[in-house]
Amino acid sequence: MRRTIAAVAFALLAAAPLRAQTQVLIVGGLGGEPKFVERFRMLGAELSGALHARFGIPDASIAWLGEDSTSRDPRYRGPSTRAAVEKQIEAIKARCAPGSQVVIIFIGHGAGTEAESRISLPGPDVTVADVKRWMDGFPQQRLAFVNLTSASGDFLPIIAAPGRVVITATKTGFERNESRFAEFFVKALSQDVADVDKDSRVSLLEAFRYAARETKRVYDNAAKLQTEHSQLDDDGSKQNTADPTGRGGQGMLARRFFLDARTAVTAAGGDAALAGLYSQKFELEVQVDSLRSRKASTPKEKYESDLEQVLIDLARKSREIRRAEGRP
Amino acid sequence: MRSLGRHRSIRYAPAFAVACAWAVLALVAVAPAARAQRAAGPQSVEEARIANAMGKYAEGTGFLERVAKTDSSWMDAQVELIRAFVIISKYDDAERLARAAVAAPGGRQALTAYGEVLATRGKYAAADSMFARAIAEHASDSLMASLNLALLAKRRGDMPRATAGFDRFIDIYNTASQTLTSREMMAVGIACRELGAGNPELFKDALKALDRAVVIDPANMEARVLLGELFLEKYNGAEAQKTLDEVLQINASNPRALVASASRLIFDGQPGADSLLLAALAVSPEFAPARVLAAHGMVDVERFADAIREAERALKVNPADADALAVLAGAKFVSGDEKGFEETKARVLAINPRDAGFFVELAEMTGRVRRYSVAADFARQAIAADPKNWKAHSVLGMNLMRLGKIPEGRASLDTAFKGDPFDVWVKNTLDLLDTFKNYDNSSTAHVNYMIEKTESAVISVYLHDLAEKAYSRFTQRYQFTPPPPIRIEVYRSHADFSVRTVGLAGLGALGVSFGTTLAFDSPAAKDAGPFNWASTVWHELAHTFTLGSTDHRIPRWLSEGLSVWEEHQARAGWGASVSPGFLEAFRTGKLVPVSRMNDGFMRPKYPDQIPFSYFQASLVCDLIVRDFGEKALMALLNEYKAGRTTDDAFQKVTGQDMAAFDKRFDTYMKQRFAGPLAAIAIPGPEYPAGMGVSEFKARADSLPGSYRAQVLAGMAFIKTNQNLEAIRMLERAHALFPLYGDNDSPAVMLAKLYGESGDKAKAIAMLKVVALSDESAFDANVQLGTLLAAANDSAGAMDALERAVFVNPFPADVHKSLAALAAARGDHARHVREREALVALDPVDKAAALFDLAVAYRSAGDEMKARRTVLRALEDAPNFERAQDLLLAIVDGRKP
Question: What residue of A is the nearest CA neighbor of B871?
């Protein structure tokens, strides 16, 4: 039984990075006060820029909607009205192939609870029912829904589903205070701060954990009670969503959900021999993942011994690649 | 989680509301009588009763004494007079009157009052017969007589008879509650209170009955005071005080209410009990409860002879007074008078062979003077005498906890809470025990630690080493090995620490030593404010040795003084230091003399007196070492261990009596702090609001020896951004008091000004003053460390940064700087320690922290730990190239 589960995980993890092509929609909501208008604009601009520059996502695959109608950003697609959001969703649907990735990110103010949860936009708000309908329209894609608005917590139980990463900045709709999570989440994707597994990539899990921890630090340092508690669900269980580890349970999918679309071939830059080395390296990475996911059920000595051997192999393979690439 | 008895929050509230309402009515009711009395004094027995209830005893008793024997109200007057005389300590007069009254026609109405007088004087057999006669002769207050008989039976330990007597009152209430008088209803309340030990629910009924007694007769002060006492007995200080305040508003001279209020203040750790006691004794000079409470106060400040004197005075009124005998026995025991203790104990047990309360009192008293093991033994004797004495279980549990016997302590507390669900100390402690699962347990050679999981790793890095160093030093100095293990508990929440220490939140201390069990605030306990947690550990561990080496007989003040003295010896900058406030207190005679130093800790007269006393006590140790050598300190401890008093111990070790030593200390202070004392003593003119900077300067120039004038002028120049002038003034101030470096010191201001002007050398000099004067100066130490590192003084920089860590170990940047400095100096041990701390801080980039630790291990030559650690880094970050290279280097056997 344990072997069966491990094999399924192996297949899922192994397959994911090879097929990912990413479409991203960023929606900056209604700011209200000038400081929020400016903050949401800056976060949207920073994020869309990072997606292009750091993750190599083509401008055509990034749509940013916001309040700033004068923006000349090549990824800016106009005001963030509900109709415009819906139009962009349809456009993404039309251009994304089965197996590709779709990431929808909201920045701004939220309101309401449970089925009444919504995101404030110029004109009519977007409701949780809208989002659910849109997400359900991508049955063959890998989906991530990231709601960085205040009072976003009640989106999670409604949107969460197996095979779908859902991140909210707060635990419930009652956490309505200004959220700090968004700025750290954007920072995780736009700066070299969140790659804790040192694979030169930032997964959604890494971005989430970085942002969650830094948010907590802000409150701790100010000796204030934390008024926002971010959540992540990527198995549809809606359980234990505050501290996903990616080592079993919540976080397994998010840990392998990258916004870039790296494969052995792309990593090798078209060099066939190097692509082979990368392929072997990826294989070893999968072995590490597989071992770690079985840590709790493996005797300690065996786990450490097996892990050490795979890590040594991986280190040697990495060195081989670096030498082949002419790197120190 | 447990909840307090429901009625504390649900049923007490309406009961109290009733009491409040009647308090108002009572005032209205008495007001006309009072107006009448102002004109002509009481005109009837009832008005005299009200006058007494309002504390106008002279008027009340004066009228009652004048009532003619032929008057139809004469007997009522006698009963009222007897009770009033008892209140104001005229026991002989009361007894004489009572004797005459019962012999007079209709004398049966005075039998109960007579019995009460006799009982108050300890003549229990005679009292018994009076109460029995009152019942047999159907006196109108025979129910009170029945209650008194049951109380006397209890006093003698005849619990079956007492319980049967109390139990009757339940039936009386259920069948005749509408016809009971106020005093009879009060009797029901007292009976229910007594029965509450077996059934805590009956405490609610006691409240109900006492409330009803007040409703029936708002002038029944005794019932009101009983209500307050009952609240206090059930650990509700706030409600107790509200109730007692009502009494005192009506009668500010009610001795019993004053004593109960004093007890309430002590219960809540508030000052002022002494003056209430004095007020009570002014009205009733021989009032035994006041004398007993005073004796307790004397024991707390370790003035045992005075405590004995107070207890014996109480016993002159009633040689069988249980409370007075208990405090007498306790005082004799803690003062080392074993024979006197045994004699007193024999007196107690002759009256009541199963007097559990006596042993509870002894347990509480010995616990208060830090003899926890003895306290636990007394509590066990109390339980043996009466297994249903819940207080005994509570006291046993608390003392076992202090002795580090956690499971046993918890079992006793569980028993106590089942029997008395009102005990807020027990409830808080049990709730705290429920959180112990959130703590890590670890140990070193001589010490066990309990630290909250979230901070256990980082604190352990330092604490383990620190505690073992202290252990080693103190074992050598005091030639004493504490019984293992020493247990250190570190609390992230100050409220939890406070509960652990005193059972309640709100304790002002940061650490406590129960001997071999120590508890501290964690440096993360922000509500405690910044403090030096390492010096606190050192301080408390010193207590372990000074308490242990004297069998816990060292006086509080000397134990504290030695602990501060040890802080000073351990590391420059640790421990309390001299301040203008301290010297001003000395100069103006506000420091207590050495001969009464415990008062400075236990009976502070002003808010700063406790911290001043800590420093003062350490100076006493300095003086002893200077004049008699360090051996004299140890000799003093030996004298205390042998049971000597402070007078005797000092006489033997220093050859001086305490009066002479007080003078010696005074001289020492004047010599040691001559300069600063002179500088703060120069009186300047007043500084009215709105003074200009030039006026400040003129005054500073005209009073060049005045510390205050220079500081104020310097501050005025800072406000007007005239930094050069400010520096000139503050340099003069600093020269007058060069040791002072606290927040408001010239050194702090000068360091900032020098820093702003780019004069790093002078900034460093001032920051050193701050760092060595204020042990909690985190920012100054970080700044100093940074400046010293830039000036290539890596040793000095490391010292400064370590001092900062001892205030706040959580900022990663300080550890990173320390690690870099240690690595550069080849100080592998400290390099490893700092890298361990950084991993323990659980950074976002843990893989990088683990890698750095692995490098440190490898530099220190520990390949095994390096390999294990780099694997941990790679487990988190399999593609971490530098870690991969390190792993391969280790595996391939390449040298670092």
Answer: A308
Say how many CB pairs under 8 Å bridge A and B: 66
Contact B65, B81 (CB under 8 A): yes
Domain final position from B677, B693, B726: B677
Secondary structure E strands in B635-684: none
Choice among B27-36, B486-495, B830-839, B873-882 with the minimum mean pLDDT:
B27-36
Last residue of a domain, one of B677, B710, B738: B677
| B343 belongs to a structural domain | no
* pLDDT of B31: 45
H-assigned helices in chain A: 2-19, 34-53, 82-95, 128-136, 156-159, 181-190, 204-221, 252-255, 264-267, 272-293, 300-324
Query: Any idea which residue has 């004593």 for tokens?
Result: B259
List for chain B the helix, strand, coil content (%; round to 5): 70, 5, 25
Q: Which two tokens stand for residue B142?
A: 């025979």
Do B880 and A198 lie within an 8 Å CB cutoff?
yes
Is B874 part of a structural domain of the chain?
yes
A161's enclosing H/E stretch is: none
Best residue of A13, A193, A198, A220 to probe chain B, by most B CBs closer than 10 Å: A198
The answer to whether position B369 is within a domain reads no
Range of the domain at B871: 828-896
- Please name the amino acid found at residue A213: R
For B172-185, the DSSP string reads HHHHHGGG--HHHH
Nearest CB partner across the interface for A315, out of B526, B846, B887:
B887
ipTM: 0.73
Confidence of residue B4 (pLDDT cuts 50, 70, 90): very low
| Arithmetic mean of pLDDT, B533-561 | 95
Instruction: Give B389-401 pLDDT, tens digit per residue.
Output: 999 999 999 999 9
CATH at B884: 1.25.40
Closest partner residue to A308 (CB to CB) among B845, B871, B876 is: B871
Compute the distance between CA of residue A251 and CA of residue B498 in angstroms, rounded to an integer: 40
Question: Is the confidence at residue B8, as pLDDT, over 60?
Answer: no
Q: How many domains is chain B partitioned into structurally?
A: 2
Measured from the Cβ of residue B123, the count of other Cβ atoms closer than 10 Å reads 18
The torsion defined by the Cα of B870, B872, B874 and B877, in degrees rounded to 10, comes to -130
Query: Domain for residue B353, yes or no?
Result: no
- With CA atoms as reference, the chain B residue closest to A284 would be B878
Residues 277-316 of A with CB under 8 A from B: 284-285, 288, 292, 304, 307-308, 311-312, 314-316
Q: Tell me, what's the pLDDT at B530?
A: 80
Q: Nearest Cβ partner of A197 from B877, B881, B885? A: B877
Q: Are B64 and B80 in contact (CB under 8 A)?
A: yes
Closest approach of A248 to chain B, Cα-based (Å): 14
Buried b (16+ CB within 10 A) or exposed e, B293-302: bbbbbbbbbb
Mean pLDDT over residues A245-257, rounded?
85
Q: Which residue of B has its CA nearest to A304?
A: B871
**Is-contact B888 A316, C-beta < 8 A?**
yes
Note the pLDDT of residue B422: 87
Band (pLDDT 50/70/90 cuts) for residue B486 is very high
Distance from CA of A304 to the nearest CA of B (A): 9
Residue of A200, A292, A316 with shortest CB distance to B879: A200
* CATH code for the domain of B649: 1.10.390.10
Q: Which of A224, A256, A311 to mutate to test the interface with B (most CBs of B within 10 A)?
A: A311
The answer to whether the CB atoms of B887 and A312 lie below 8 A apart is yes
CA distance A311 to chain B (A): 7
pLDDT, tens only, A7-62: 333 333 333 333 348 999 999 999 989 999 999 999 999 999 999 999 989 999 99
